[in-house]
Design brief:
With about 170 residues, the chain is mostly beta strands. It has one helix and eleven strands, in the order H-E-E-E-E-E-E-E-E-E-E-E. The protein is globular and about 50 Å long. About 25% of the residues are buried. The model has no long low-confidence stretch (mean pLDDT about 95).
Length: about 170
Amino acid sequence: MAANPARYGSPNPGAPPQLARFAFLIGTFRGEARLRREDGTWERLDAMWEGRWILDGQAIADEFRMSNAAGELLVLGVNLRAWDAQQNAWSMKWLNALAGTWTDLGPAALGGVHIDDDAIVYCMEEPVADHALTRATYTGISNDRFIWRGERSSDGATWEEFLVIELERVTA
């Protein structure tokens, strides 16, 4: 299902072809997030993800928000994604709108961004939580859904899943 260009923009024919790897994010998705609390229990949260082509179709901006059962907004921000042809690498940042802070996603120092037929994986220094690093993995990618898995680590060697977000497309 293609996203509506009037609402979500469209890719620039001259944009780097690598940008198409994140095109599955274009559109509006809703779903459930499950967050592992420190005591090991899982909390169910509401999640919404909305992606658009921006800057004349040369980049993707995808907004994410997560709230609890009472409707309290816990996470609000936007990812900006572009392909740096000169560096042959992704240039991605997360803006935490609630804190006004930026985070590099998948920097070279943490291994960059890895993409294959089944998943997209990258790490980031964790700006909010108690752990040092977060590894993000997109899986189950299709035209109508995707899963985002977050794993946490304090040492970069041992990882534990702490957040699973399952989303389905609600608009095209």
